[in-house]
Design a protein that fits this description.
mainly alpha; 2% strand; globular
Length: 299
């Protein structure tokens, strides 16, 4: 088995060969088809999942503040439709009393669809692991709800931090005799928190979703790669939909759904590409299940 330094040296020595290997393997694994399935199931799961989380957090945090934080986080994933998604979630929160326990259970079921689709897609990309390991059904069933709980905790922390920051601009800080005002830095700080949260969330997905044990450094490589690709992609998409796109003319009343689905499709492709980077990286210099050999090898 190669040392991590050996793998990194090979990649640094032949970066374009490694990139070609990632893209060709992603295409061979039908990555775009898998991303479509993940995006569609995420579309079904997104609003129910966020609604369930906000219903729980609204018992402790003001609903208006929660919706504002949710809107800011939605901009990281679908910048053009953050307002529409937040409005839909707000409607659900206003009517949460008529949903009942059965309705909450139904929403939780729908919330798990995206994680199930993602786990199946990961099993295709990490086929060399599936051939050796198997995951118990109970573990697969529990993982989505653990992530929903994790997202709730993360949203709670972000809400608390943002509420503190909002209160600080009118109270300049005196640090080492210098007066600092956080008014202009609050937005930047919240953006950096969101990006850091993306890296942590994606890294945790790469650690947990594939079968078997993945090294933390490998998962972090995938998490950073996917975050950088997504930050570039979402800014390009925001510019495109606001300046050049005729999607509202073509699709009319379906525009919101189409734009959200396209954003989720792009996000799913990037998420699976990050997984493919990890899969190719950890197979450098190893024998594959089909008897082949990684194209990148020492020397």
């Amino acid at each position: 088995m190669l040392r991590p330094t050996s793998r990194s040296q090979i990649v640094l020595r032949h970066p374009f060969r490694f990139l070609w290997r990632v893209l060709s393997t992603f295409r061979a694994n039908q990555g775009f088809l898998l991303a479509g399935a993940v995006a569609f199931n995420t579309l079904l799961s997104l609003v129910p999942m966020v609604a369930v989380i906000l219903v729980a957090l609204s018992q402790f945090i003001d609903q208006g503040a929660l919706l504002q934080i949710t809107r800011n986080l939605m901009e990281l994933f679908s910048p053009n439709e953050a307002d529409a998604l937040t409005q839909q979630i707000a409607v659900f929160l206003d009517k949460r009393n008529v949903i009942g326990a059965v309705g909450i259970l139904v929403l939780l079921t729908f919330s798990s669809f995206a994680f199930t689709a993602l786990e199946n897609a990961m099993s295709v990309i990490f086929f060399h692991r599936v051939a050796v390991h198997r995951r118990m059904f109970l573990v697969s069933a529990i993982i989505p709800y653990l992530y929903i709980l994790l997202l709730a905790v993360g949203l709670f922390v972000v809400s608390v931090v943002s509420s503190v920051l909002v209160a600080l601009p009118d109270r300049p800080l005196d640090i080492v005799g210098i007066h600092w005002s956080l008014g202009g830095a609050t937005t930047l700080f919240l953006y950096l928190i969101g990006v850091a949260g993306e890296v942590l969330l994606l890294t945790s997905l790469y650690l947990v979703m594939p079968v078997g044990r993945i090294a933390l450094r490998h998962a972090l490589i995938g998490g950073v790669t996917a975050t950088l690709l997504w930050e570039i992609t979402r800014h390009i998409m925001a510019w495109y939909f606001s300046t050049l796109s005729y999607v509202n003319v073509v699709y009319g009343s379906f525009t919101t759904v189409i734009v959200i689905l396209l954003s989720l499709e792009a996000g799913a492709i990037i998420l699976l590409l990050g997984a493919q980077v990890i899969a190719v990286y950890e197979r450098i210099g190893t024998t594959h299940e089909d008897g082949g050999r990684a194209r990148l090898r020492p020397g």
